[in-house]
Amino acid sequence: MNPQLKTQLKALQAAEHELNPRKEWVEDTRAMLLSRIQSERSEYSAAESSVGVVADAIAESLRTKFAWTMYIGKPVMVSVLVFAIASSGWIASASATNSLPGDTLWRVKLATEKTQVVLAEITGNDTKEVALQLKFAARRAEEIKIVAAEERFDAEEKTKRTEEGVEKLKENVASVDESIKKTIQFGEDVEKKELGKVAKDLSTATEEVADALDAIASAPDSVLSKDVHEMKQTLDEVDIEVARVAVEGAENDAERIEAEQLVEDKIVSLITDADKSIDESVVVKDLAEQVEEHADHASVISASGAVEGTENTVSGSEGVVDVPVLEVSSSSPIVTGELDVFSDDADQTGDTPESETVVLLTVDELTSRVEEASQEVQTRAEEVRTLITDGNLSEALDKARDLGRATSVSEQVNTDTKSAVEQVLSDTSEDTEETTDVSDGRE
Amino acid sequence: MKHARELLLLSKIQKQRDATAFAELYDEYIARMYRFVAFKVESRQEAEDLTSELFLKLWEYLTKSEQKHIDSLNGLIYRMARNIIIDHYRKGASKKEFGIDEYALMLETGDKELRRVEAKIDAEKLIQTMKQLKQEYQEILLLRYIEELSIKEIAHVMGKKRTNVRVTLHRARTVLEDVYKK
Prior knowledge:
Chain A has 443 residues and is mostly helical. Chain A is built from 14 helices and four strands. The longest helix of chain A has 42 residues, at 393-434.
């Protein structure tokens, strides 16, 4: 369209234009509508108030789940904790000392952290334990980020240090998970209430760690994506559990409303992530299709299983199939069907990937796997949406957790497929450069 | 607003007559619904009246009907808006608001003002041009260029398929440019 016209159309949206409502009118109308609504509402009794309905539903489901649990009567020294886990500047203050994984002093740092955790454990202070673990997880994430950016280290050193850091990070995240579960299952009511009170802070903290994880995974040449996905998944589950506890432990309307808000936010963010991964799946499939167009140049596999990388179709030996294939790690969910975090059942292929080997798959196999994973996500997202529309927050939360898992798998499948495809595409572009009779003017 | 968030709000309004949730929807939709209505009527007064009527009717629909499942608020609210406008026109023609005198007044007040006024006149011309097109084209241009909705969203609001939307949009643009030049 004529660009001048376009600008003019756009200008119509500008606030001063007549096409927009007057500010006072907007406010007046809002007030008018609300007062009309309120006068209608006063006919309804307090018993039907939204908050009560939701809280009751969740409390019911929790009661049924944990009714059988005997609370361990340990002598608990519960101090009234006031947690100023200030959500702003949390990550920044998290790296108390400058030592990085691989440094000698780093081990010392870990030791001091461990001491703090043990202290919290001994005094039976589960909530503090969780908070500490989260704080240290944030530190690990920050350290890893610093290592990646540090120019002094060469690639090899970076990998080594990063691995060390990630190992510890995984431990941290796993302990957070464990501590939370412990508190929920065996903790006294008071402890659970404590947990509920700091739910919002915990949620912010897990979000910060998740963000840092995202930054790590999206760094170029990152081999950490699988670990990152698993950790993010664990953090998600922690969030959900804590949100539940918050609702159950709420003592008054204000707390209930806040807790309910947490639950809603969590569900909404899970659905949004799901939508993102569905879109990404489409992109990845398109990308994979490009490989087929380069069929001549992709690696071919002969019947015996050996791989030959050639530019043309192959010699006339019997049983040779020239189908473009891509390399995928045997531990990827593309092959196993699940992320490690979830696999309590035996994986579907029947292989036990004890060591990571490379599996070769055709483009079709890959795209169908991507599609499968994406479908799974879509189905579950639909379920959650239906439950939300029915007002069934408690079940929606449950389903949302399943959705989170499916999304995690799909994300991992997408990432792995994408890197496999990009590997092939970059190989073929190198080939194209070397071929003399193909001139596409590319540098 | 995320779709999931919208579904939550709707559910609260329908099940629990939650006024805060309704207020959130109001804040989200008020400006664009006003623009939608203002575009189709002749005066500010009408636009204001009809838009408040719209939200009132929306509240009543959501809270009084038998808990129908609503897939998308977008589609619903634009449909209701269209109906209100149609009813309004059936009841009797609306007054025209012309405003040229305002402009004449402003022209006297200086060069900066003059440029603003010129811009305003251009915009007026553009709007008048658009109003000459058929309803469908007007709507689609509004949704695309003023509200900046995606093709997918427009398809939802207008109840068309995406390819259809693209085609209609293209035609609308062509006609607009032709008419505008004259």
